[in-house]
Amino acid sequence: AQSVAQPEDQVNVAEGNPLTVKCTYSVSGNPYLFWYVQYPNRGLQFLLKYITGDNLVKGSYGFEAEFNKSQTSFHLKKPSALVSDSALYFCAVLPSSNTGKLIFGQGTTLQVKP
Amino acid sequence: ETGVTQTPRHLVMGMTNKKSLKCEQHLGHNAMYWYKQSAKKPLELMFVYNFKEQTENNSVPSRFSPECPNSSHLFLHLHTLQPEDSALYLCASSQDIPLAGSTDTQYFGPGTRLTVL
User: Which one of B5, B10, B43 makes the best mutation probe of the A interface by having the most chain A beta carbons within 10 Å?
Assistant: First the structure.
């Protein structure tokens, strides 16, 4: 079965420290990978996506993600966390043979403390 | 803002009520989606529309009835819901549905928080 796993329900970091939010996937073929962020009482906002090419993808608000095919991972990173980055983060995968079905992980809450 | 609006933002209804959720996108997209977001669970895709035609019904109970009168508007009609249907209902749109080789990004609205009593 095709799936996305975000192994951590919550990640806590201090402001100014680097952050990583983990994502692994299990799909057939070459996947397209996405990260979305959800602030309280808001919908999901697109952060970045990997389609092909450079394994390091840069997105909005200083976030980046690294695609690792051998480890089937697409971890989200930021060199220096801000308190305003505190939100719910979703990893999603679109299998290359798919027709519209984004498969989402269960989400990881990021808490950045001052 | 993403260019996708949803109304109402909050809705409380009894199990015998009939209500409708509305979604409108101002992005010129051709594909629209309904998702259900429940606490501690991945987003569940409910319906997909492309050029007003339904292309996906992800085994959704018939008490949820979608309607897409044009590419900019999407409705979700609700009737005789159950308390377990309480959730955040998210609408999204993309330029087209992501067929093989296409990777159109989906843009989400703010959601409707539905509570069924």
Answer: B43
Contact of A3 with A102, CB cutoff 8 Å: no
Tell me the per-residue pLDDT of B53-82, one tens digit each, with 9 for 90 and over.
887 777 899 999 999 999 899 999 999 999
How far are the Cα atoms of A16, A40, A43, A44, B38 from residue B104, in angstroms, in the given order? Answer: 33, 25, 18, 15, 25
B68 closest CA partner among B104, B32, B96: B32
pLDDT below 50 — which residues of chain B?
Answer: 100
**B98 in contact with A at a CB cutoff of 8 Å?**
yes
- Give backbone dihedrals phi and psi of A71, rounded to 5 degrees, phi first: -95, 0
pLDDT of amino acid A6:
96
| Local structure of residue A53 (DSSP, 8 states) | S
